[in-house]
Amino acid sequence: MPSGRRWRGCDWVDFFILLIAGTIAGTMNALAGGGSFVSFPAMVLVGLPSVAANASSTVALVPGTLASAYAYTTGSHKVGFRDLGGVRFPMLLAISVAGGLIGALLLLATPVATFDTVIPWLLLVATMTFAFGRQAGGWLRARFRMGPMALVPVQFVLGVYGGYFGGAVGIMMLAAWSLLDGADLKELNPTRTIVVSAMNAIAVVCFVIAREVWWPQTIALLAGGLIGGYLGARVSQRLPAPVVRGLIIAVTIVMTTVFFWRAYR
Asked: According to a count of CB atoms within 10 Å of the terminal CB, is the N or C end of the chain lower?
């Protein structure tokens, strides 16, 4: 696609679609993850090729996750970032960034036609994680414990997935961490948020350098993501968890079905 087209302006319909989608996606990410299930399809809906849509969606949602991290670590209920077992927080960040870099480079090397075929399966994996991750996490915790050294390769693989696509990566991360650290998972949310932001940030650098970002659409989605990310973190303790979970699972099922139909019709 000629680079000039990536700078084309949004019409008002596209702008409001992306603003609303960004707000919903940012809120979902702050509450439980899964924002890419809204942001990525919205980018495709307004006409972006799938690889550019995924790259632009990633760029747009990074500031929202940073806003969530800020909200989690300020105010009367401030919490901090944590080490996990014997793995120091800076090491966790470094592993995640390395994985995110590899994942982003793999995405850029994937032809659009191939990605169109792969994306429904990635969405399915993320959907299964949302729907059954809690039960699977409990089953795993009853049978396995993970040492600090085992976390390093697991976190790297999650970083690669996060840089390449990233749907439900936050939930996958919490499930893996729960095998290592006995802390309340709510206490790990700020750590999850900043680690996901770090792996996405390195991917963003790659996507910008590769000129895969459609900026007007990205900025519209980004504005909504900032609003949703901050507000979602602030209201996360007030919303019934079953309602939030049910809505997110419904969104993931619908979007997965749509993309399977799109790829294999």
From this structure: C
